[in-house]
């Protein structure tokens, strides 16, 4: 095969191309290569000159159907001449083709929607899922008991609109606040984004259905004094709708930018803003509001203390053990027993008799502990056996040293580290499920409370002592949370995992387990605490357990600032929406 001639650099052509004409080619030919292809013996050069420009930014090929000028031959110097194999030229073009294919794939990837990327599905499938959710949101209210009552057409239309407002708020809760439950698991790698979304969907709905009524009773009539609006039921109804719309709007903006804000802050601020502007100072239950605000301050502190203690216990009793892997495998069932027993007793006791309820909770906890122990030994049994065989004799000097809860302990390495992270990887998944269930029970009230109060106004019993929240309304709120989680939950969930401090399976488990305990028991007591505050406090507690420098202060400042902004923004939007809805619904009310 006849070799091709390559002249490098190609500025020689410009220099010999005929004065000004050659100089015009300098920008084009800089860092370029000239390939002169010989087709037969009778003609040394073909009529085609191929210029290939290659740099780190682009690769272009120019074809000239012209004979090279005579002056060009005069500038051919042996020192400027080198022979290359034609395959090199072909491979260069092949590489350019590969780069084009990669660029095309990148463009196709960029065209995929965020939901499609999160679930690793096609854009058409993502659009189909979104359309199905939208159709369900618009049609399911017609199957609910609220619209099947013997009410006037006007009341049914307003009830339908109210349910849609409640769904919008619940949707945004799922899109933003669910990251509190699953974000740390995604950040530490214990769960993929798809696994986290699917798991949270089931547990958020279950928590809303089984536990949502405890906090909803506080949110529906514990913030605004309904008696102040006596004879102004229409205004109170519009104010409740405006609170839902204002909270949903701010949450949607925050979710779009990936800001983890407090939904509880938002809805309470919106209701207080409406009450102050349209009802005066006496329209707000200040004692109830003080109780809520104090819980916002107390919950991150309790979360930080709880996670600090949990993480220190892990380091004390697992990391400092002669065989950390075996210690982790033994500690996991204990943690599961505590978590499942507490959840069973607080969330859904089978009996009102304390002894029976305690026995039921203990039975559930024992069952969960046994199952987890079997799973761990089945999945990590080979590593546990290896750790037994390779375990060295403990140092007598180390055994004689007293190790306290606050003593700094070096972490395990090698096989022991794999076992510990493997065990707590499973544990973090369970703690994330625990947190997700507790979050669904606590935060569904932010949508269902005002929704239930607005529906009871339409049904004429707003002044009743207690509003019974139908099971289908709780399920409606749970469905809204799941829908928002599936469609937009990835935005905040993908960014919250490692922003405050670096997380590992042990740290993530300590933070989630502690935060879930705080949120769960607060829900049972009727305290509408912020799950965001609790988890942020818990993650900070884990960071403080490693040292003050382990917590990223800038991130904490940003989060606290977003909390401070949420209250006034929610209040301002509620006032604005009340004015707008008063104009729009004037003919229906």
UniProtKB/TrEMBL annotation:
Residue stretches spanning the membrane: 125-145, 157-175, 196-215, 235-259, 266-287, 293-314, 326-347, 353-376, 419-438, 467-488, 560-580
Primary role: Sodium-phosphate symporter.
A biological process term (GO) from this entry: phosphate ion transmembrane transport
Species this chain originates from: Papaver atlanticum
Transmembrane in keyword set: yes
Signal peptide residues on this chain, from the entry's feature table: none
Keyword Coiled coil: no
Protein name in UniProt: Phosphate transporter
Positions in coiled-coil regions: none
Compartment(s) of residence: Membrane
Keyword annotations from UniProtKB, A to Z: Membrane, Phosphate transport, Transmembrane, Transmembrane helix, Transport
Membrane association type: Multi-pass membrane protein
Family as reported in the entry's similarity comment: Belongs to the inorganic phosphate transporter (PiT) (TC 2.A.20) family.
Single GO MF annotation: phosphate transmembrane transporter activity
Pfam families: PHO4
A GO CC term assigned to this protein in UniProt: membrane
């Amino acid at each position: 095969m006849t070799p091709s001639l390559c002249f490098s650099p190609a500025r020689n052509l410009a220099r010999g191309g005929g004065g000004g004409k050659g100089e015009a080619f300098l920008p084009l030919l800089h860092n370029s290569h000239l390939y002169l292809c010989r087709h037969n013996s009778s003609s040394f050069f073909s009529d085609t000159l191929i210029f290939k420009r290659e740099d780190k930014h682009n690769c272009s090929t120019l074809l000239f159907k012209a004979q090279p000028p005579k002056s060009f031959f005069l500038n051919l110097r042996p020192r400027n001449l080198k022979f290359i194999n034609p395959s090199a030229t072909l491979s260069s073009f092949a590489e350019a083709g590969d780069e084009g294919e990669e660029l095309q794939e990148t463009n196709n990837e960029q065209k995929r929607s965020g939901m499609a990327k999160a679930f690793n599905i096609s854009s058409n499938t993502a659009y189909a899922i979104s359309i199905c959710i939208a159709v369900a949101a618009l049609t399911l209210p017609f199957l609910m008991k609220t619209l099947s009552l013997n009410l006037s057409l006007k009341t049914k239309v307003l009830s339908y609109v109210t349910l849609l407002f409640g769904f919008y708020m619940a949707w945004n809760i799922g899109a933003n606040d669910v990251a509190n439950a699953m974000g740390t698991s995604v950040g530490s790698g214990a769960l993929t984004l798809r696994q986290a979304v699917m798991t949270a969907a089931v547990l958020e709905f279950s928590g809303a259905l089984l536990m949502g009524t405890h906090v909803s009773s506080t949110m529906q009539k514990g913030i605004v004094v309904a008696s102040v609006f006596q004879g102004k039921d229409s205004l109170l109804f519009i104010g409740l709708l405006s609170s839902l719309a204002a909270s949903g709007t701010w949450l949607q903006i925050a979710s779009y930018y990936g800001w983890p804000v407090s939904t509880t802050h938002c809805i309470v601020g919106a209701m207080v803003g409406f009450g102050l502007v349209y009802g005066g100072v006496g329209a707000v239950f200040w004692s109830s509001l003080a109780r809520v605000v104090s819980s916002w301050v107390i919950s991150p502190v309790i979360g930080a203390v709880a996670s600090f203690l949990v993480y220190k216990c892990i380091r004390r009793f697992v990391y400092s053990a002669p065989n950390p892997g075996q210690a982790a495998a033994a500690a996991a069932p204990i943690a599961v027993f505590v978590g499942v027993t507490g959840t069973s007793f607080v969330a859904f006791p089978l009996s009102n008799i304390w002894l029976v309820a305690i026995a039921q909770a203990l039975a559930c906890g024992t069952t969960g502990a046994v199952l987890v122990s079997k799973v761990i030994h089945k999945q990590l049994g080979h590593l546990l056996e290896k750790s037994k065989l390779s375990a060295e004799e403990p140092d007598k000097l180390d055994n004689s040293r007293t190790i306290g809860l606050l003593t700094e302990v070096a972490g395990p390495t090698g096989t022991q580290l794999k076992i510990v992270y493997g065990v707590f990887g499973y544990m973090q998944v369970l703690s994330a499920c625990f947190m997700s269930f507790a979050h669904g029970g606590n935060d569904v009230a932010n949508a269902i409370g005002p929704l239930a109060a607005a529906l009871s106004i339409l049904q004429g019993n707003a002044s009743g002592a207690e509003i019974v929240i139908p099971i289908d309304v709780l399920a409606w709120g749970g469905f809204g949370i799941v829908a928002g989680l599936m469609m937009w939950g990835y935005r905040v969930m993908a960014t919250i995992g490692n922003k405050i401090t670096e997380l590992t399976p042990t740290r993530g488990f300590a933070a989630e387990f502690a935060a879930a305990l705080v949120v769960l028991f607060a829900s049972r007591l009727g305290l509408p605490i912020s799950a965001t505050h609790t988890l942020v406090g818990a993650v900070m507690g884990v960071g403080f357990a490693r040292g003050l420098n382990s917590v990223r202060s800038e991130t904490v400042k940003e989060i606290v600032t977003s909390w401070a902004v949420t209250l006034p923004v929610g209040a301002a939007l509620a006032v604005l929406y009340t004015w707008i809805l008063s104009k729009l619904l004037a003919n229906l009310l």
